[in-house]
Design goal:
Elements lengths: L3 H4 L1 H23 L5 H26 L8
Helix pairs in contact: 2-3
Length: 70
Amino acid sequence: MASEADRDPRHHTQKMQVRLQELIDHLRTDIDKVDEPQLKAMFETSAEVLGGLKKAFSDYAQKNENAWRK
């Protein structure tokens, strides 16, 4: 049976935001470790896309967008 925390959407959105930020940080750190310009661009683009996804989780948690309101 799921615990109370497991049923709370905020628990999940916060957890996903942390994981996405970890991945964003990793991608941006690795930009300086590679020499290929195309790979650097892919890492930066990926970090930006994940940042947008992280914002979507935040907007959902805060009900900032009409789509997330009941």
